[in-house]
Design brief:
Rossmann fold, 13 strands, alpha/beta, globular
Length: 288
């Protein structure tokens, strides 16, 4: 793969902008974002086309460099620049990662603790860190990373993201007002706001991307809220999509979700990124 090149992102207080040059090939940069400094493993393809940026979120192991490496083929075929932030377990334990900072010890957390503002800063940094006009930004989260994106989309959606790919998570946020947080919209927002948040959630460009052989129970959440979604990750993904489709149809709401499945793929981020269906999940073409 070649030697990684490193860089540093300087922050200008006067203009409040982030500057960086993402090196060609594999690299690593440090981004000074508000409240956190993140190491980001990068890959810039050999081609000159830059249709956008793909931000990756790993599962339980939080192996950002490995996640970046798994997306190199996809990057070369699409022209997408890959960014994989290192969100280590020390700074981002399960409640800040899987639960997006929203829920801890069976209690809703103040919004000041939520992970969404940091990810919004990451999106803004990504847009300003490559030499391309109006690049598209895609987010891809596998397993625990998929849980993170599900809760970000439901409870504190980001601006400037052109597509969210939620891949094989152990649980989702159901678009239901009577399902309690962190699996639904009950007891998270003041009266009247939950319905608006649900409408926004259904209108987001979300792809539920599932491996058809992801039917095992290794590290599968056994909480009551998760079990209500199905017996395995495949069932749960299909269930959340079908629920969203039904709710949108019944209430006359916009529904921008898609369901994409990869045959013969289990609980593997590498296999999901390598699958031909990944291009459809992202909504991008290949062989630029």
């Amino acid at each position: 793969m070649g030697r990684e090149r490193s860089g540093i992102v300087a922050t200008s207080v006067e203009h409040r902008r982030w500057y960086s040059v993402i090196p060609r090939g594999a690299g690593r940069v440090s981004a000074d974002l508000p409240g956190e400094r993140l190491d980001i493993f990068t890959y810039r393809p050999r081609c000159d086309a830059t249709p956008g940026v793909l931000i990756l979120f790993d599962g339980l192991k939080r192996n950002a460099s490995g996640m970046r490496d798994k997306a190199i083929t996809l990057s070369e075929r699409t022209g997408l620049i890959v960014l994989a932030p290192l969100m280590d377990d020390d700074r981002f334990p399960k409640w800040r990662y899987d639960r997006a900072g929203v829920f801890r010890h069976r209690a809703l957390q103040p919004q000041a603790y939520w992970t969404a503002p940091l990810l919004q800063s990451l999106v803004d940094w990504a847009r300003e860190s490559i030499d391309a006009s109006a690049p598209k930004v895609y987010m891809f989260g596998h397993s625990a990373g998929g849980q993170l994106l599900s809760r970000i989309c439901a409870y504190s959606p980001l601006s400037g993201v052109d597509g969210f790919v939620i891949t094989n998570p152990s649980s989702h946020v159901l678009p239901l007002l009577d399902e309690p947080v962190p699996y639904g919209f009950k007891r998270i927002f003041p009266a009247g706001e939950a319905a608006a948040a649900l409408r926004t959630y259904l209108a987001l460009p979300i792809t539920i991307f599932l491996g058809q052989r992801d039917t095992g129970d290794h590290n599968l959440s056994k909480s009551k809220g998760a079990v209500r979604q199905g017996g395995n990750r495949l069932e749960r993904g299909r269930f959340v999509y079908a629920t969203g489709e039904a709710v949108a149809k019944a209430d006359g709401l916009m529904f921008n979700w898609r369901l994409v499945e990869a045959p013969a793929v289990g609980h593997s981020s590498r296999a999901m990124l390598d699958a031909s269906q990944c291009y459809a999940a992202l909504g991008v073409t290949f062989d630029v």
